[in-house]
Amino acid sequence: MKLKKLIITLCVSVSSQPLYAGQIIEPSMVTIPAGQFEMGGAKAKQQPIHQVAINAFKLSKYEVTVKEFRQFIAATGHATNNECWVWQEVTKDHDWGINIHKGNWQTPKYAPSANHPVMCVTWQDAKSYASWLSEKTGKSYRLPTEAEWEYAARAGSNTDYPFGNDPKQLCQHGNILDQSSAKALARDYKVKYKAIACNDGAEYTSEVGRYQANAFGLYDMIGNVGEYVQDCEHENYQGAPTDGSVWSENCNTDNPMIIHRGGSYSSGEVGSRTATRAHAGTGNASSLGEGFRLAETIILK
């Protein structure tokens, strides 16, 4: 009887341990040097191409992971959405291929491991996480601006991709719409997309840091998940700031959205280009490939 009571006591003690024990897991940051670059691309939404000056800042080496986001939730009790955009099998009555269903950032299907990028989180969740981490560490964490993001993604390049213009090389540098992803989407959801002629070995998201880093030492700037930035959506770059600051005025008024960059595991040749821009709602949660990484302001003393 005493042994039984001891076992029960031990089980209760272990199961009642908090998920967050007070030790902060901070992202690994890379210092991005100050410089200037030509921002934009050939598409109308990426015009006009304009020169932007960027101050030095820091950007996380990897996209924010399930493990890193989990500590925030455990410490704060922050409430996230309990449904998000997911793939849905194409049928006669539903030919869109996506829909909103129950699920969240820790649903196993969307969070296969602790080192996968967190998804099914909103822009608002991402900002709340950055604010909490700043408060706990005394550092100035935030989302990058759109100009900072593109400058860091290009890493000194002026080509379609940070490594050049050949899309067949994409599978070495990111998790994109390759042959394995296209087959998986067709198999699981009857969604048909044209694959890039290479194989990156991942059907959906992959653990962060699996592919080659760019010249700044940043991983997954192409593919895996699209990354929220601070800026709201504008139709083009007319009137965009040229100092790398956030563009949060004169946003699209019909349906205000925010920008995310970098493509995802379901992005093709065009969607994976460094200049490509995409959007999301501020309260949008999605497993279709939307997540984030953090920037840090360098405070001069």
Produce a short descriptive summary.
By secondary structure, this protein is an alpha+beta fold. The chain has helices at 2-15, 66-76, 123-137, 146-154, 170-173, 179-189, and strands at 29-32, 35-39, 50-54, 57-60, 83-87, 98-102, 141-142, 226-232, 258-261, 277-280, 290-291, 295-296. It has a four-stranded antiparallel beta sheet. The protein has a four-stranded mixed beta sheet with strand order 10-9-8-11, with helices on one face. Strands 2-3 form a two-stranded antiparallel ribbon.
How would you explain this protein's 3D organization?
By secondary structure, the chain is an alpha+beta fold. The protein is built from 6 helices and 12 strands. The radius of gyration is 20 Å and the shape is globular. The N and C termini lie far apart (64 Å).
Query: Which structural class do the helices and strands define?
Result: alpha+beta
The radius of gyration over CA amounts to 20 Å
Overall shape: it is globular
Strand content: 15-25%
Kindly report the spatial arrangement of strands forming the biggest sheet.
1-4-12-7
Mean pLDDT: 91
How many DSSP H or I helices?
6
Report how far the terminal alpha carbons are from each other.
64 Å
E-strand count:
12
Secondary-structure element pattern, one letter each: HEEEEHEEHEHHHEEEEE
Q: Which consecutive residue ranges, at least 5 long each, have pLDDT under 50?
A: 1-21
Helix content: 10-25%
User: What profile does the largest beta sheet have?
Assistant: 4 strands, antiparallel
